[in-house]
Design goal:
Length: 189
């Protein structure tokens, strides 16, 4: 078998395997996003804190829009002023997506119902609305922590860029291509 023929055979195997793995890349799955938030008012003034949440990107509506429900997050990590919250101690309000399924903003806290979060004066309650950089609707509101009646800080929060993580299908394709190239070189010897 000539070198060209072996190479063509190897490339055919790689292409066939790639075609079988493409559905893996399109499947929905968990997405973890980090965000930065600050407070500039009241007893809980603090500089940027980093939090995170995980959601299933299958919840993004076709054509974009809002998803309002409790329990949208598999993981939630929010800490401020010596207080820490996770998905068991804070519930979600909503997520908003663009038509391509990209997360535009999220709204969550410890006194939320589907679609809205509220603050009751004197109660230890908070909510964060966080979106893409430059989004003018970002804010952090709280009440009742360290005896404060309630404060709101706006325009200081932002979703941080997604980390670049290769999809499993992409990793499999790269590995398969290396194996095929190695096999072709061994046969040439």
């Amino acid at each position: 078998m000539t070198h060209a023929r072996r190479l063509a055979t190897a490339l055919t195997v790689v292409a066939a395997t790639a075609a079988s793995l493409l559905p893996l890349a399109a499947e929905a799955g968990p997405v973890t996003r980090q965000f930065e938030f600050s407070s500039t008012a009241g007893a809980l003034q603090f500089g940027p804190q980093i939090g995170s949440f995980t959601y299933d990107d299958a919840v993004a509506p076709v054509g974009g829009g809002y998803v309002s429900a409790l329990g949208l997050f598999a993981n939630l990590d929010v800490s401020f002023g010596g207080f820490s919250f996770d998905e068991t101690t804070a519930n979600s309000g909503w997520l908003r997506f663009d038509p391509a399924g990209v997360l535009l903003d999220a709204h969550f806290g410890n006194n939320c119902n589907a679609g809205s979060c509220t603050i009751s004066g004197g109660a230890s309650q908070w909510w964060i609305r966080v979106g893409q950089v430059g989004n003018s609707v970002n804010d952090f509101s709280y009440s009742g922590f360290n005896g404060e009646a309630g404060f709101r800080s706006t325009n200081l929060n932002a979703l941080l860029p997604n980390a670049t993580v290769p999809e499993p299908a992409s990793i499999a394709l790269a590995a398969l291509a290396l194996v095929a190239a190695g096999a072709t070189r061994r046969r040439q010897r």
